[in-house]
Amino acid sequence: MSTGPTLTLVRGDITHEHVDAIVNAANSSLLGGGGVDGAIHRAGGPEILAECRRLRASHYGRGLPTGRAVATTAGRLAARWVIHTVGPVWSRTEDRSDLLASCYRESLRVADELGARTVAFPAISTGVYGWPMDDGARIAVETVRATRTSVEEVRFVLFDERAHEAFTEQTRELP
Ligand code: ADP
């Protein structure tokens, strides 16, 4: 019996994906930022930010902890939900791999709670947060493969050729 979801790789802008849930590489404030976070809020409109603010007020006054995930509406995006997760900042001195793995696991857990069957992920932490792309791709692919979930398709949406190559390499190495 196959346990894991089907993995697909796409090169492009995650805000254009037609999936049940789009994962956002947010920061702990949940109030928006640059990179994919900024793109999701720009494309999705103010409804997402309004819901993030409400979540912050009700549950995450001190911020969403690193490695955790929480869902909001997707506003104008062609998705039903945005799942916001906070990746770790890359550290040369401290191994934060488990926190990065936790982002993928927790996002899939939230997706399961929502009943999402198709989920699009960006390469979490590999932008402003500085995680080396090859290692970020390895953790992403290994973690999704190892997670029990009802999600049927996980689509990694890679913004540039380097990211696409790194994820291709990781999926190629698996049997
Ligand atoms: P982080 O702070 O977690 O590093 P970033 O948004 O800076 O988050 O970058 C995460 C990854 O998302 C990077 O590989 C970046 O190239 C990519 N990215 C940026 N914009 C988009 C987008 N619109 N769609 C998909 N991926 C994107």
UniProtKB/TrEMBL annotation:
GO molecular function: O-acetyl-ADP-ribose deacetylase activity
Record EC number: 3.1.1.106
Keywords tagged on the record: Hydrolase
Top EC group: hydrolase
NCBIfam families for the chain: PRK00431.1-6
Ligase among keywords: no
Location of the Macro domain: 1-175
Name of protein: O-acetyl-ADP-ribose deacetylase
Pfam families linked to this entry: Macro
